[in-house]
Batch of 2 targets.
Target 1
Amino acid sequence: MTPPPDEHSVRIEPHGRTLRLMPGQPILEAALSAGLNLPHSCKSGHCGSCRARLLAGAFHYPNGPPLGITAEEAQRGQILLCQARADSDLTVQARLIASVADVEIKTLPCRIARLRPLAPDVMQLWLRLPAVERLRFHPGQYLDVLLENGRRRSFSIASPPHDSELIELHVRRVNGGGFSERLFGAAAGVGGGAPLEAGSLLRIEGPIGQFSYRQGSDPVLMHPARPPFLLGRAPHAGPVRGSAGARVGAPPSAAQVYRRVVGSVRGRSRASSRRLGA
């Protein structure tokens, strides 16, 4: 069947997949919608994680060249899949990451099972999937909560893959945030909008991302005098708990991970301030 006008296809190597592109649809969006988890991160053209090589065809960037690619890289045939729109049928060569390539990206309904504050500005959120569904993921991947009017919020998965009956997220409160304020409003018993509480229905898309823990045969060594420097909250919980569960069978709780790692980061920050004389 001949595609409608302005509709093109893209063949993605080395995966050997051919996808149909709707008019104006970014290549990365089409790949993720088809369950093909290509390397990416910001989806805004800044990080360069979705860089691929153009083998055939023509494309354009609707908002001009993105910041995540240099002129030299563009001259070598590199493109950013999150921003590129097809002007013809395309063939691109994307990077293959074997550890997450076998995980299917799904869009699923879920309900909030329970909420618990971890800190004044951090909410622990558990999501329950339908009984017939399971979300396969690797430690360190994240998911998107799909909101009204096409909006979405990204959160790292804090629960380990071997304990996926409930999906655990850590949500930081953002003043005026369309999602976090509704969570904290429900927990505090205040009004305003439609609060999200236990039993509320959500839609999620995931798993997404390639920054994940890869299990190996070598031991993980952590010296107490040199704790790992980890940024954020939930982004470290998944890999740490996944690693611990894979090796000793008793992963630490999210609250324990949060207290230990945030405590070590704060301690290093104080030490750095003393060294700098701040």
Target 2
Amino acid sequence: MAKFSNSNNSLYLNVYIDQGSQDISANSSTVNWRLTVSRTGGYYTFNKQGDSSLSLNLDGRNVHSSSPSWETSGEEYTLARGSSSISHNSDGSKSFPFSCTFNPNNGIHGTITVSSTFTLSPIARSSWVNDNALSGDRRLGSLHTLTIDRKSSSFTHQVWYRVFGSDWIDLGKNHTTSVSLYPALTLHDTTPKPVQGQWIFVYGPIMEILKLEMIFTRMDGIWQYLTA
């Protein structure tokens, strides 16, 4: 756990934070935290009346408030601990501010605040298809293999394609890193002219849908794929 501390009159408030599990479909991470007090020197200090105050804010949201009893003569004393869910940005990144405030309320030590920023590991949000992802001879009726740059081992994909404005052809779900396709010879009859195509990426929870619009043209009697 990362440790952040501040003090007042030799009493330290310590905030420990680390990243727990990630939920890819929810685009969020679990953050584990622990709040302690400790002191330098050898004398005993305490408040056992339960009228101290403690609060923790993560990413602008209060996740803990209490009035703990505590004591320390140098050792760390745990005031509170817990876990909280933090949502990531739409691109999967996340750094969030936090602030913890403790009022010992024992007439010896003043209010202590610890504030900083914590950065979470990013969550992969999108698989992708590179320009050279489609292998094959680019001829209708022959085998082609599409390679998917999968950003997380938990991602599966549904892949569709169409040629010349045809209906979308569904290659099925649960593809991981590649899928094979055989564009039918009859697809050249769909429209008299090739149209500009592109990869269309749509993200859904866990399932990613990759749509490919292929460009073919007649070349010496053969309908052939043209790379853009």
